[in-house]
Amino acid sequence: MKINQVSTASFLDQKPGTSGLRKKVTVFQQAHYLENFVQSIFDSLTIPAGAILVLGGDGRYYNSVAIQTIIKMAAANGFAKVMVGQGGILSTPAASHVIRLYKTFGGLILSASHNPGGKDGDFGIKYNVSNGSPASETITEAVFALSKKITTYKIADLPDVDLNVLGETQFDEFNVSVFNPVMDYADLMATLFDFEAIKSLLASGFKMKFDGMHAVTGPYAKEIFLNRLQASADALMNCDPSEDFGGGHPDPNLTYAEDLVKIMYAGAQSPDFGAASDGDGDRNMILGKGFFVTPSDSLALIAANAKLVQGYEGGIAGVARSMPTSGAVDRVAEQLGIPCFETPTGWKFFGNLMDAGKVTICGEESFGTSSSHVREKDGLWAVLFWLNILAIKRQSVDQIVKRHWVQFGRNVYSRHDYEAIPNDAANSVIAHIHSRFATLPNQVFGGHIVKSCDDFSYTDPIDGSESTKQGIRILFTDGSRIVFRLSGTGTEGATLRVYLEAFEPDSANHHLDAQVALSVMIEIALQISELKARTGRNTPTVIT
Ligand code: VG1
Ligand code: CO
Questions:
Q1: N or C terminus of the chain with fewer C-beta within 10 Å?
Q2: Going by C-beta distance under 8 Å and a sequence separation of 6 or more, which residues neighbour residue 445?
Q3: CB 113 near ligand 1, within 6 Å
């Protein structure tokens, strides 16, 4: 096997964000761009003899081109074997599972998640370590530092591997295995959930609709829902992956999953349960007939009902949520007498807590929920968890949520995103709020008194690493809260996220629409931030 050392010049923008490096496809298509980043990852590692690399992605445009390059670079950098999902397909949670199941060294996941795909869309790459978790900030910072001074990369002179044919190809000491990306994952789901109970729910006239959004979960959904749970074919929509996600935006929320939302809000004939997942299969949206479950409520409800589900019937050790996620799960943890951890945004902060056995279930307000069965968030897992709960409770989705609110109170919650605003404008909003930190406490806004404000920082309880500047929190004495944060996954300008939350113990008010119930909080957020004047935006791009 001939190994070439290729001279290259560094790019200065290869800084991984919340979840890996995400850029426009055209940026990744620049000569040496992908190679530089992959070599920087490999250079940050000590690769032992016999190391296996798991490789795959969400099937978006450039996926298979990148895979062929990475296979050759892995060979040149000392990996003994690359395991690649057939067709280059591997959902993010399935990749995490395969990394763990086969005790591999780690994996590269090619995805820009919920960002649009296609030639003019986004591409991305993320490194996961041997426990299946996204690399920590310590690693991603080391990779960024190396990427700024890289001068050569190593690539083996090998032919392309046919990614569509299952099986092994041997090149001297190096092996490429193309494996079925669906089966191990589906088998894992079958151990966690009562497939017989779900099967009888689906056979009882209960109607479900799952929207794969033309993204990676399609093949997984077909195997699990059609083959194993015997759902009828019309239970699935958009389950054939395409390189540009059917021209859509594979983000499962009320704005971008609008076809599913229409079906679920069509009145009496709507299905009983609707769900969708994102580009790489780690997000989920849960809907009932004419009813939207906020991700924060979904997390709380899953934790509260975990004992009903076979994989969790022994109880859960603890829960964790990202800081901007609502406090609904905190109330469940308190009642269950288990710890609840508050981490910065991004799944990489949950891995240590799970490895240490401190938490079983984790979630984020951004449509991410999962458990310690993998080290990523897991869209289909959440869908199956809901179906399992529904199969046992035999109540409607909205009944289950409303009863949960009666028991625990309702954390009314919404997130307003202002996408693709100029960086300067976004930074000026954040700087302006910072400048008010000293004077905000004790001020009264619309009857709400500011208790405190800060920039969230986190010390990992397991390894002691610190993460600062993780979002501005304005906390009020009545328990309501506003959070401002800049996105770390966008590829155009800046995205400013405003997270709004108020606690409503009184069930007489639980029927209120979140935007109505939070209207005062929304006004306060705009007033404190001067967002409209500073960004020129009068309305959010997306409300969830
Ligand atoms: C967003 C979400 C965050 C999530 C991240 C990756 O990050 O807010 O909760 O972990 O996306 O999800 P940001 O920095 O844009 O707010 V995925 O499904 O895009 O890998
Ligand atoms: Co995703």
A1: N
A2: 524, 527, 528
A3: yes
